[in-house]
Specification:
Strand order of the largest sheet of chain A: 3-10-9-4-5-8-6-7
Distance between the termini of chain A: 39 Å
Number of domains of chain A: 2
CATH class of the largest domain in chain A: Alpha Beta
Mean pLDDT of chain A: 91
Largest sheet of chain A: 8 strands, mixed
Number of helices of chain A: 12
Largest interface: A-B, 61 and 60 residues
CATH architecture of the largest domain in chain A: 3-Layer(aba) Sandwich
Low-confidence stretches of chain A: none
Shape of chain A: globular
Helix content of chain A: 40-55%
Number of strands of chain A: 10
Structural class of chain A: alpha/beta
Order of helices and strands of chain A: HEHEHHEHEEHEHEEHHHEEHH
Radius of gyration of chain A: 20 Å
Oligomer: homodimer
Chain lengths: 321, 321
Amino acid sequence: MGGDRAPDEIVRGATLYRASGGAAELVLVGREELLRPRIAGASGVEVVDAREVVEMGEHPGAALRRRSETSIGVATQLVKDGRAEGVVSAGNTGATMAAALLILGRVRGIDRPALCGMLPTTKGTPACLLDAGATMDADAGNLLQYARMASRFMEKVHGIGRPSVGLLNVGEEPEKGERMQLEAHALLLAAKDVNFYGNVEGRDILRGTTDIVVTDGFTGNTVAKAMEGVLDVVTEGIRADIFGGLLGKLAALLALPGIKTFRTRMDYEPYVSAPLLGVNGVSVVTHGRARARMMKLAIDVTERSIATGLIGAIGEAATAA
Amino acid sequence: MGGDRAPDEIVRGATLYRASGGAAELVLVGREELLRPRIAGASGVEVVDAREVVEMGEHPGAALRRRSETSIGVATQLVKDGRAEGVVSAGNTGATMAAALLILGRVRGIDRPALCGMLPTTKGTPACLLDAGATMDADAGNLLQYARMASRFMEKVHGIGRPSVGLLNVGEEPEKGERMQLEAHALLLAAKDVNFYGNVEGRDILRGTTDIVVTDGFTGNTVAKAMEGVLDVVTEGIRADIFGGLLGKLAALLALPGIKTFRTRMDYEPYVSAPLLGVNGVSVVTHGRARARMMKLAIDVTERSIATGLIGAIGEAATAA
């Protein structure tokens, strides 16, 4: 029921996942009378009724108080009760995180959860920027835990061996930043289970200088939104200015193969599933703008997180350290 | 002597400024034997010799120790001695800031300096993001001072009446953010001399939601570099993918007027002069990539800052509050 295009595109994403051979069985949680007609007897898709919906702008706290009624609350409870193995939502990110934290709890040894923002890089590999906004008052110890969790996630779910970790900072030199960055730098350098590259800057994120970029949730959220803002403005500019007029439309026809290449390069849909790491269960948030394809890809990430035993691996990394 | 294209493009920027009617008389500071042949008798341009140069990657502290020999040290000292009224550099930002802070000192009533990053917005007006990286450990009181200083700067130098101020945060709601943002929100709301809009998010910056966006220097620097990184990657993509091949080149010919419109819209050169606010003298940093035109525009900003009495206005705002 969550996201700007629910329930149509969300349900379509679910049936697309199944139709393209997805192994996981799906449970759609929400208003039964809206969902059931839309699945039209697709195999491996069932419906669990939930009467209420957390709206996109709603305060997570208010949403939590009526969690036994809301689709995100009911869906998360299914995971807690062992009736589902993971939850994925295109809805209110704050409510999804709050439900996961309250209902599923934290992995033992992890103090704070982190939202893992996935981005395409010019190297062609995905990169993970975390924390993209789950925790507002992170300290250096939290950042070390983020690095450990994201390393397991990139290994297991994205198949990247020994993923490299960069610390987001205002310069490459080890002595850069505030006290928190200096402490985090020392902790990351000393951690044997983290492939620490050193400091990276904002411009390194899309270059893929490292597979993982760790930062506090305030900086991560602000940076991610600022980057998205630039991309939106530039895309609008290309459409309106370059390919807008009559000559522009002709040019667009000629440049069509190139435009397709460009779109594929900038396509963040395969990556935009943001897993919430550190909660004791698989919980994945995707973009509120998600259409069927993006939803299908988010279900893929959710399924791979389950199938590869991500939560167990994070638990081992947290307690072994 | 500073910047990737010094001294050629820097000197060309100076003579361009004079040739296009700029009123200020210019003093070029650096190796006399390199500079003098390049000004070729341009009127209103003199040379003061300085033997050393702070390299772009050099540590500002090391640079400061030999400040009586370096071009940025000597140039800043000219302002202190009243032989110049402002200093502008495309060189090492850290060294320029350190020289300004140490040699010129702070404006009375201002605790920390802030670097004012200028950006174009889709509204067509410039916006100011500060602190773009001058101070790493800012508190809420500093952010209020930044808002006051930037308000005077946008009024005086960019002619914007009652410039609006946004607080960079992870959401629009007043209760968002860490303790520092909550405190800053309360201080900005109570300040009668600041036209406070409320919280803004990363995606608001280029939209021009507010004329000024205040944040701490760590976040501001990281966000600015991340935004620049996206712009670089997208620009490369447009060039290589869309207009790269033979068909693409033909398309580019057709789309030429549109490409020009797009370039003008995305052109940050008129804005990229970052004044360092809070030091007791006009000090402006421009991009290390600066060519003649960008340098000329940076001199314009420097001259307007002097002519409009910016430093005095900041001093009044700081002590009246």
